[in-house]
Amino acid sequence: MNILHISDMHFGPRHWLGKNKVLLDKLNSYATDIVINTGDNTTDALENEFRAAGDFLKSIDCQHIVSIPGNHDKRNMQSADYFRQYIDDTEVIRPLIRENCRKKNIFLDEHTNGIKEHLTDINFLKNITINDESILVVCLDSNSLYEDNGFVDKEMLRTLSLAISKESYDKIILLNHHSILDTDSDPLFNSQKVVEFVRENNIEHVFCGHTHHLSIMRSTDLYHKHSFTQYKNGSLSSCNTPNDTNMFLYYKNFGTELMEIHVIRAIVENESISFEEEIITCY
Ligand SMILES: [Fe+2]
Q: CB count, 10 Å around CB of 17?
């Protein structure tokens, strides 16, 4: 199973000046079973930005594309509607007990007109089978409406754990926009709750973005005897890249002893893009 990981495309004012067609040709040159996209599809969550991001994703040559929102995608009361209209019309998981939710603006006021979806959190599961092997992709919304910092609702984690327990799968991975292992100026405040969720659901692979900085880290809980790896991708196509270059990641033979992580960096100079590729072995 081969996975292509992209993040932080930032359509809108923070989008790069590189040619997207050249980038698409490069992305499509990899034999990919699943594409994962860890958020910040847009800059300001505007409809035209969501539409452009959706058009780009539709041009990637892969049957299974799993996208989540980032903090930039939640700067709009219509964010949940636009995400479903342009990115993925997925069935979101609703909290078991709404009254237990503590996340700010997780529900819009019931009198808010002109929107279809009043639940602003976009949490869902996708169970994808590749060559007789099933992979459960857990998509956790770590973003809050109008905020750059992350926050995860405990009731949503409880709801997701119950939904996971009803699934059967060979591998399980988690996608969330903010890092749960390191921090930055707009961190996920209660990342410890997600680390517990990862351990309780025996998740060994976590994918994120947000900081525009490559980081691949493994964490081991010696007391509970559980390890997981967090793959934090840089930005695919942002013009705001003070932390790192533009890049994407390709995981060949994902989750096996033969796994290779390919770091593909895109260098934009004047009108042209060149790519540099580095291969990391993990085991
Ligand atoms: Fe972000």
A: 10
